[in-house]
Structure formats: structure tokens, C-alpha cells
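fwd from M.: "can u put these together and see what the complex looks like"

so here's what she sent:
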Amino acid sequence: MGDTDDGKKKISEAAIRRLPRYYRFLTELQGRNIERISSKELSRGMEITASQVRQDLNHFGGFGQQGYGYNVDYLQNEIGKILGLNQTYTMIIIGAGNLGRAICNHQNFNRRGFHIAALFDINREMTGKQINATPVYSMDYLEEYLQENRADIAALCIPSAHAQEVAVRLCACKIKGLWNFSSVELDVPKTVQVENVRLTESLMTLSFAIKEAGGDLDER
Amino acid sequence: MGDTDDGKKKISEAAIRRLPRYYRFLTELQGRNIERISSKELSRGMEITASQVRQDLNHFGGFGQQGYGYNVDYLQNEIGKILGLNQTYTMIIIGAGNLGRAICNHQNFNRRGFHIAALFDINREMTGKQINATPVYSMDYLEEYLQENRADIAALCIPSAHAQEVAVRLCACKIKGLWNFSSVELDVPKTVQVENVRLTESLMTLSFAIKEAGGDLDER
């Protein structure tokens, strides 16, 4: 965890990964009208050590006060700002199959400032339809659409075989982020941010936990 | 990273999280007929330091040889065994909406030994149907089904409001693992393993990356 040139503490990827979890936990506390929380309680709720909590939050300017703990509203809001949640993002979804439709119907995204503007699909039977009041367009129309409409993020809900080729098209249209549900490691310019959702890896992590817990299973 | 009572090195959660990535990367190398790989190349492909690679793989008995590197087949197979992928798992899916159907149609899971046996839904219009040759049953039938059929893992593809209640029913039926797509923190016995897929958190991580990269967006 070194310092960057401008003196700001460099944040480890593990700490960044924990920020959305802090945000979710704090939002849950708000919902229960809890106004402040100690690093000990925060650590219990987050299932990490209290010293880790203090270290994490210190990176972001140390929001805690000795003997008082953290103000939940303030901390939630500050972490939200760090995560960029005080901004709005326009998202398009590539692929209007089951996964694309599930993403489109998800309740939480809009609430967090992610507005889904359109879906795209190669299947001509899908184009012209609407999903959750969001239009489905033909993939042929992608470039023209992106010239005329803003889109910050594209969710790739398409088969792995097509993911790279579509990513290249999206990068050419100056997309800022790709939310990649395919199993492919995308090769894109450094200026484009990629977040992978690896479902198979997640399932493997679960199978590891079951195996470690001594669940008795069939050999194959 | 301490030692456990039986002298085996305790593996950090971060190292465990990396195992499925190693597995995926090594499987990709196999597909390209690559027989061996140095920790340096492995580190480049995995985007982690070479010393981290050596440290990770040392936990699992050190599969590398000085000056030779790692045998890809052997390493892939050993990591597969650690992950429990030499066993088969039977999975049921709770919720036959878009997400449940997307999981059911996913190509990779069966190949990795995760067999999807059934879906369950409260919607009576869905029950009796088949998705990808997998039957959809009524939620009323869940307990009876689990008395008569094996299921190791249940994927929770249902609204967050119902996730805890369904998790309790599944735990009572001796499920071994829950693959939780809801945003709820499930409260289950320690003997049941939970793997959460946090889509909103993943999207927040992407928005953080875009913000850090200086993507210029609207304040809200």
C-alpha cells in the first residue's frame, strides 16, 4: 500500500472491493434508523477485523471519532461519493436474453443512479419490443445509437464467443465501462474500465467451501 | 496466515478467491495446448505479482519446479481437486424468472460438474414447464422433492424479500450450499455454506473505476 505521486494513499484492490459492502451495510443501518456505529460493530457486521475497518476508512480521510465511532449517514454518504454514486450513469445492455432481461428488471440499479436506457440484440424477433419499458434495438443500430445517445456503461449479456468483438465496437464508440458477464478476458484500451462477473468462479468458490466443510459428495 | 491445529497452512480468503481464476486461466492454456508455464507468465496472465503466485501455489503443496515452471495439466488438475471439481454437485434453482432461467441455460456449469436437476417457482403458470429440459416445480413441492432427491446446492434467484424464508426451508432440508443472488445477508447455520453474488456491489466497483479514471459524468 504505497503512496502515489500526488501524496494520496494508494488504495489496495481488496479495500476497494470492500467499499460497496460498507456502503450496503451502512444503507441497511440507515434503514433501521441507526445513527452511529463503532468500528467494532462495523467489523462484526462486515465480518472483518476492527483494525481492518479502521485501516480501510483511514484511507478515505478517517471519518471516525475516538469514543464516538462513525456517523452512519455521513460515512454512507462519503463512501457513496468515493464510489461515484453521487453521479448518474447511463447503461445499455447488450443481449436481451434471460440474463439481459434479468439485469434490466433489477430493482436496485436505478435507485443507485444507474439508468438503463436501451437493450440491443441480434435476434430480430426481440427488436422493437420493450423490457420493463426499455426499448430493445437491433445490434445493427448500435453505433448510430451511441452517436446520438449517451451511454457510460455497457453490460455484456451475450455468449462468450461474441464478447470481444462487441467490446471492440463499444470501445470505438467511447464507452467508459464494460460490465462483463461473459467468461472471456476482454482485451480493451486502458481507458475503458472492465468489471467481470464470473459466475462459474463464484460457483467454484462455493464448491470449495462445501468440500472444506466436509460435505460428502460423489467422486467423478 | 497462521497454521491450523493439524499443521496445514491456513489459506487466506483472498488466495481462495484467486483459485478459480487460476483454474480458468490454466484451462484456457490447456485449450491452447500449452504444457508448462513459469510463475512469471502465470503472474502476467493473472495480473498479480510472481511472488504472489509462488506464495499462493505454495499453500497447496508447491507444484512448481525451479527452472521448469509449472506443468499446466498437473496444476489445473490439482487446483481442480482443491476446488472440489473432481466431484459432482446437484443444484436446484429457486425462482424460474429471467435470472433463474439464465442460470439454468448457462453452458459452463454442467461441464464443471454442477448438474441442475430442477427449478422451483411460486408462479403456477411456470410449474409443469421445462427450461433447457429441466422441470419447473411448485414451491409447495420443495420439501417433498428434497426428501426424495439429492440436492447439494440451491441457487436463490428470487426477490430479496423472500430469500431468508426460503433459505430457512432449504437448510431444514439439509442443503449444503446456497448460491445467493439476492441482496440479503442470509442468516443460516454454520454448516451451510453461502456464496453471495452481489450484482449491485459489482456495478458500484465499476462506477468507482470509471470515476477514478476521470470519466466525466453528471452530478446528481
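replying to her w this: The radius of gyration of chain A is 21 Å.
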